[in-house]
Design goal:
The chain is mostly helical and 125 residues long. It contains five helices and two strands. The protein has two domains: 1-67, no CATH class; 71-125, no CATH class.
Length: 125
C-alpha cells in the first residue's frame, strides 16, 4: 500500500480505497447511534449494535442497494421508519415512552408494507 519511488513515499490507490471504506463504515456506525437510542437505553445493546454495525455495514449496504433496486418503494418505507424513530426520540423529551415491541412492530410493518407494495405495483406494470 506504500511505494517508495525515487526516494519518495507514495500511497497506492488501494490504500485510498481501504481508508475510504473504513471511513464509511465508521460514518454508518455513528449514524446508527440515534436509531439505537430510539429502541433502547441499555448500554450493552448500544455498544454491541455499534460494534456489529462497524463490522457488517458494508455488506449490509450492498444488500440494501440491491434491495432498493428490486423494491421500488423500499426507500419510502425506510424514510417512514426514520421519521418514526425521530418522533419517538422527540416524544421522550415530554416523557412519552413507547415499549420496544411497539417500535419493532412499527418498523416491521413499514418495511413489509413497502416491500409488498413494491411487488404489487411491479406486477401491475
Amino acid at each position: 500500500m506504500l511505494i517508495v519511488k525515487d526516494g519518495e513515499k507514495k500511497y497506492t490507490t488501494l490504500f485510498v480505497v481501504v481508508v475510504l471504506l473504513a471511513t464509511t463504515d465508521v460514518v454508518f456506525a455513528v449514524d446508527s447511534i440515534p436509531a439505537v437510542f430510539g429502541i433502547t437505553r441499555e448500554m450493552i445493546v448500544i455498544y454491541t449494535s455499534n460494534i456489529f454495525a462497524v463490522l457488517g455495514l458494508r455488506s449490509l449496504f450492498f444488500l440494501l442497494r440491491g434491495a432498493v433496486d428490486r423494491f421500488t418503494h423500499l426507500q419510502q418505507g425506510i424514510a417512514v421508519v426514520l421519521i418514526f424513530v425521530g418522533l419517538k426520540m422527540l416524544a421522550e423529551i415530554w416523557h412519552i415512552y413507547l415499549p420496544v415491541y411497539v417500535s419493532l412492530l412499527v418498523i416491521l410493518v413499514c418495511i413489509t408494507t413497502a416491500i409488498l407494495y413494491s411487488l404489487y405495483s411491479g406486477r401491475k406494470k
